[in-house]
Structure formats: structure tokens, C-alpha cells
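User: I want to check something. If I give you two sequences, will you return the structure for each one separately, not as a complex?

Assistant: Yes, each is folded on its own. Here is the first sequence with its structure:
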Amino acid sequence: MPIRIPDALPATEILEGENIFVMTEFRALHQDIRPLRVLILNLMPTKIATETQLMRKLSNTPLQIQVDLLRTKSHEATHVSAGHLETFYRTFEDIENEHYDGLIITGAPVELMEFEEVDYWEELCRIMDWSSTHVHSTLHICWGAQAGLYYHYGIQKYRLPKKASGVFEHRLLKPKSPLVRGFDDRFYAVHSRNTDVKIEDVKAVDDLEIVAVSDEVGLYIVKSVDSRRFFVFGHPEYDTDTLKLEYERDVKRGINPEIPTNYFPDDDPTRAPLNVWRSQAQLFYTNWLNYYVYQTTPYDLEKVGE
């Protein structure tokens, strides 16, 4: 089934080229069903790449999804044109009286700053507070997961001795959770972060449960007991070459980064990486949309959050 996005969005042509069903606005308006409304708060500097990655995952489900893109007004993006933002993105003032079935809050390259030092922190707090009454299910990714746990539950983040970058093996702690239905007992996922949240801090909160972890890099999936909030500490949306591009970027900056773990064959950055996380990543987004958004959201969007 299709994903419904504006015809002129750069992701449209890319997804159609991958044989992904993208529905035009005209066709969507003439179907007598209510699509799921999903809002993406895109905090990543590589906005077009992140849009495309997330929409690729959201599109591969038997559901019609209408996607709105949200940006922070208190931060000026420098890696994307103002025209792209004006054309395709909305601000919180545009949507604060609307309701959504799902919200995705992305990561952001601000991990080494204290939360309160981030220039859009107050605006992000307003959005996270608003999500409790206007969004049925919210998914927080990477730094967005750390920010969500800090804001909603007071859980601190900690700086890692070295960056967790690479592809790591994970195991399920809640294998019967619908969120990981279809997952292998051992599976691979991508991490790219400089900070972490301690497992014992999450366990100390009765309203949270841990679904999946890695013995190498710790937490991967955490959710609220009421299934309204989800926190994933990796990047299941990443493309095959995303870690490669991050590594090459840091090399050019003179940061002297370590080679991402278990990513390049024989740890040779000149060789093309293999994607061993794609199927699990797709299952994650599909299961979240199906079991925690579509199956439980009210048909009347005005009742979301009640």
C-alpha cells in the first residue's frame, strides 16, 4: 500500500525509482478511507536524506499514510535550502491544534551538549508535551530517544569513552512483544552515537520496559508500558552507505575517527559495506505502525490523546 507525500518532494522520485508505491495527492483524496497521519520532526542536518530513509520504511506496509514534516523554528538549518523547508515543512504553530496517529522524533548531532544548551530545547519540550494529548504513539530515535527519556522520565545521558559506531549484534528481552514480531533471536542493528543511557536507570522506572539490548553497546529498544512512547537508540532507518558517509565526513574534518565496528569487510574502508540490518529495520517500523498505531488509534482523530 502507498505512502502519501507531496508530489514534488525529492523523496518521491527516489522512492518511485525503487519501485515503492507512492500515492499522489489527487488519488489519495479520491479514496474513501482515512489514512494514518504521521508527523516527522526532522532534527537531522541531512534533512532530505533522513526524509527519504524514514519514508522508505513507512511505505512498505499495507497502510495508507499521510506524512507531514515538522521543523524547529528556533533553529536555522544550514544544510538544506530555505525553499525546501518553506515548501515541505511546517512549524509547531502550524500544527499545534491538529492531532496525529503517529509522531517520529529523529536524532540530532547535539549529543555532547547538555539538553538545556540545545538552542531548540524549549521548543522540543513543547512538542513532546503536546504529543501526550495530540499524538497516539510517538517514536523517538537515537538522541531523540535520550531527549524523550530525559524529558518524560528524568533519565540522564552519559558520555561514552568512545563513539558507538557500527553494526552490532542484539538480543531480545521481550521476544513476545508485537514490536519485535518476526525478529530473529539474534539480529543486527546500526548505532552512531557518543552518549548512552544506563540500563539500570531505565529499569528503575516502572512505566518503562526494555525490549532489546546489545551486549556491546547496551540499550536498543525501550517502550512505555502503556505503548504510547517508543525509544530506539540506534538508527534502523540508515541506508547501507550512511555510516560510510559519516566516517568519510569525520576523516575530512580531521577528527581521526575509528572505523565503524563490523561494517566494512575486513575493516577496510575502501570496500563496500554489506547491509545486514535492513530486514529487521523494516520489521521494526512495520510492527510499530501496525500494532501500536493503526490497530489502536481512534478513527476520529479528535479523540487522540483522550
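And separately, the second sequence with its own structure:
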Amino acid sequence: MDISVNKYISDTGFCSRREADKYIEQGRVTINDNIASKGNRVKTGDVVEVDGEPLKKKKATIYMALNKPKGITCTTDTKDKSNIIDYLNYSSRIFPIGRLDKLSEGLIFLTNDGDIVNKILRAGNQHEKEYIVTVDKPVNLEFIKAMRNGVKIMGVVTQKCFVQQEGTNRFRIILTQGLNRQIRRMCEALGYNVEALRRTRIMNITLKDLPPGKWRYFTKEEINTISAMVANSSKTGNNAGNTEGMDE
């Protein structure tokens, strides 16, 4: 590493390069206890401090999409033998955004960016999640209409949503809600049991070309699109009773 001191400061996420120049001009920046001046370079092993506080290198943000197989639990609790973290065995700390039931499969996001987790999980964001669901008996028009218009589960009526028959026992559903085990509970309320549930899309990201059990990083374009989609979301907020914003 050999970069200018203002770029080093901005790369840590402490402030912009322009603001870093002001700190340097004010004599508030040191490199190895020597007051820095504009144009100084920072090399590997150098200690850069602002107002006597060492600057820590910012962690690179990780955003990944996993096609979760059945039997993996969306928990970071390593006491659970089927936990998603041990399954991935990734080199640094990451955590899932929302969850899929152990018996469900399909798309789930993982990241080390707590800020984007909060934004995506907020119910007010109304982000779409798309699923293909197989049930234990043939679906009919009455069932499809009921699913579309809302089903009473857990003391509330689910929001209206897109539902389309895809086969004798199979349908596609797009949710913006994320109540706990929502699709399974909706089906059970109408006398059906879910035999297979696969999430195929979250927001702008799909399972395309991602085999079961495999993962990939988001592309730059995907990150930019998601950032734009959550731009109006505050970091904290009332989930309006929706405690699992990315559940199925």
C-alpha cells in the first residue's frame, strides 16, 4: 500500500477527501505520531490518527445471493447443526437478511452491512418477494381468488397480492408482506398443505443461473438498484407489526 493520506482517510469511511484535507491543514492528522501535511503518503504498517484516535480500515461490504437448499436453517446460531453460516463456511462474518423456513428453498440474501438489512426489512418498503408453491391437492379458482384477496391468519387478514396458477397443484405468489410462515399459514387456512416452497425473486434479484446450494455476489448494478430502492428508508423505524420483513 502506498496512497495519499487524504485518500487513506476517505477510504476508511471517516470523511471525504476534501474534509480530510481540512483536518490535515488544521494539524489534526498524524502519521506514526508525526503531524501530516498534504501530499504525505501512507504505507503498509503506518498508523494514521485524527485527533489522536487511530483510524480503522473500513470493512469491505459483502452482498451475496444464495439458492438455499431444503434442510438449512436461516440462523447464525452455530449450536443449530443445520445453520446457514456453517453451511456457507464463508471467510468473514455475514448474516442472512430475513429468513426462509428450514423446509423451504430458494433465494436469500446474506451480507455484513447492518444498515441495508434494517432498510430492506422495514415493512414500509413494500419490497416484492416471489415464490413458486406446490400444495398437496389441486388448486381451483376459489383458492386462487381467496389467496389474492387476503386470508385471515394470526388474527389479521393478509394484504391483497398477485397469485397465478402454474400447474395442477402449483401456483406463483408475489408478497410485499412478510408475516411469519405466511404462505404456509394462508394455505392451511384454506385447507391445503404446502409440499414445496421456493423463493425465486427478491426485489430486483432472481435465482437465474444459480443452482441449488450455490451462491454469488451481487453485481454492481444490482447493488446500485437496491440502494436506490431503499434510499427513502430510515435505518430504524416501526415495522408496523411485521417483525419478519423477509419471511415467507
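Because they were folded independently, the notes below concern the second chain alone. The chain has two domains: 2-54, 63-229. DSSP finds seven helices and 17 strands in the chain.
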